[in-house]
Amino acid sequence: MRPKRTAWEAAGFTLFEVLVAITILAIGVALAASLIGRSIGNIRKIEARSRIIEHANSVMELTLLDQEITEPTTFDGDFADGTRWTMNIEEYTPDDAELLEQVDMPVKLLAYTVEMFPPGSGVVDFRLRTLKLVPAR
C-alpha cells in the first residue's frame, strides 16, 4: 500500500515539467528575436531605398527647373549620406517624327535620366526618366 501524499507534496511541478516549460519558452523567445531582427533589417533596406528615391526626385526636379539647359549634357554628384547620382540629358526623337513637325513652334524634346548609386556601390539601384520640351536654338 502506498502512503498518502500530503498537500504540500502534491502541489507544484516536477523538475522535468519545469525544464520542459523553460525549453518551450526559450524556443519561443529565440523565434521572436529572429523575426524582430529580420524585420529591422527589412525596415533599414526600405528606408535606404526610400532615401534613394527621394534623392532621385530632388535631382530631377532641380534639373528640370534649370532653364539654362537646352542642349545634351551629363553631370554627376553625391549626397552627404554617400549616395551618388548621374544625370544624362540627351536629345529625344519620338518614333513618330511627324509629331514634332506638326507643332508650329521651334522646340525639341530632351530626355532626362537620373541614375542613383547606393553608398559604396557601383551598380545602378534606381533610374528615373522623363522628357522636357525646350526651345530649339
Write a compact overview of the structure shown.
The protein has 137 residues and is α+β, with helices and mostly antiparallel strands.
Plain-language structure description:
- The model has no long low-confidence stretch (mean pLDDT 88).
- This protein has one domain.
- The chain has helices at residues 7-10, 15-65, 98-102; strands at 73-78, 84-92, 107-117, 126-135.
- Strands 1-2-3-4 form a four-stranded antiparallel sheet, covered by helices on one side.
- It contains three helices and four strands; from the N terminus they run ααββαββ.
| Total helical elements | 3
Mean pLDDT: 88
Catalogue the unreliable spans: none
What is the strand arrangement across the widest sheet? 1-2-3-4
Rounded to the nearest angstrom, the distance between the terminal CA atoms is: 113 Å
**Helical fraction:** 40-55%
The fraction of residues assigned to DSSP E strands is: 25-35%
